[in-house]
Amino acid sequence: MNPFTLTVEAFVTMLIPSSISSLKPLMTTNYEVVSIAELSEQIQAYSQERFTGWLDLKLENIQDQQWRLYFCLGSLIWGTSTVHPIRRWYRQLSRHCPRVVAGKESTPRHWPDYDVLADWVKQGKFQPEQLQAVVEDQIMEILFDIIQWGEQLRYRSGGERLSGGELLYRRCLGENPKDSKIVMIPAVQAWRYALKLWEAWQRAGLEDVSPNLAPVLLKPEKLREQTSLIVYRNLSTLADGNQTFRDLSVKMNRNLLALIQPILPCVRQGLIGLRKVEDFSYSLKRTTSTTDKPRESTTAVNPEQPVNPKHQASGPLVACIDDSRIDSLAMHKILTEAGYRCINIYDPVQALPILLEKKPDLIFLDLVMPVANGYEICSQIRRISVLKDTPVIILTSNDGIVDRVRAKMVGSSGFLAKPINAEKMLNMLRVHLQKSIQSSTPIPSMKDKSEDPLSTQSHQSQLIDKSFPQPL
């Protein structure tokens, strides 16, 4: 069974340089990987013989661990993996070219692929060093994972070999691709660097800790007793079970090893657990059954009257103002899968103009952001007539009475503690949207009732049916 879903496979394919993905293998030879040392010899041989093609790696008895390394004239040019391909690409873009994922409605469908980045380099819109860094980090992550899994399988039980891996490499006998857009990384040099990273990982006692795992709090009370308040708050924010160590490394702009080492004692004591997480959704939408879809209003629409774009989708429009792109993407996924429309705003300076343009039905507002914090933005929102009644929910990890009081003073409608819990978030969303609709519905006069005693009740029922998606 192919471990990729159809949408993810399409996403992974689009990331591969077109000049390579179009090549057809003329011969395939299978190898069995006995050790990482033998794999090192194979990569050195590919470099010396200026091999063009790709190398497929698969671990025995583990279906969800597969990798592909692409070579051109003996150099590495790309790599793919069945583990978190969308998260991985998002990390590379966030780290090396954050502007391309900073759009207020950015989703994986809007992100550039390899060929687009290469075209931007040709057009002078993108620095060659940025593309080089994207390719290098993509390949290094995959090489590290191959080494870690290979070593774990061989020495997981007191040095006794448990299982090997199957190495498939496909040599293309056609002409080498003549494409100046391809970034070429010396294969032997990259492999040796990945081995050094693995050696440092071992020295830190992290042999059994994958950087693709996400930390999650298991015993928050005991953790609070054993750490300072600042450390506890930081860990509560980071260890939400939704962000991998690699995601957090990019988010915090910290070295991966330096990030994990302080957390390791808490992991060994059972205060923090490590869990597998799914990849980001490519479409950010789920397939719903007829019983799962939000109910739509039966109100007739005048075909000659232009439809307000805001109401073309099934659910209300929700704005998320948060400078963390990983947090924003997670919230986008929660909201869109629940039937709501969502816009992400990463730059707090641009928040007000976007809110005035979009006029969302509800706003989630992060408290701690650069330049302008959530209190300041909320206060500004309340001074704008068209937004003064829009529900504003403050998001923060500082779940204290002082923060709640201050948030209330600047006009916030609610307070939601991080890490974000999808169920609590959606429940709060429904409650405040319903309050907003009820407060904005005018009380009819006696004259209105005498003309049509059911009009107001019918109209309000239609509004509620249309505005609230059914619970998942």
From TrEMBL:
SUPFAM superfamilies hit by this protein: CheY-like
Residue span, Response regulatory domain: 317-433
Keyword Repeat recorded: no
Alphabetical list of PROSITE patterns matching this protein: RESPONSE_REGULATORY
Signal sequence bounds: none
Alphabetic keyword roster: Phosphoprotein
Sites bearing 4-aspartylphosphate, chain numbering: 366
Annotated PANTHER family: CHEY SUBFAMILY, STRESS RESPONSE REGULATOR PROTEIN 1
Name this polypeptide is given: Response regulator containing a CheY-like receiver domain and a GGDEF domain
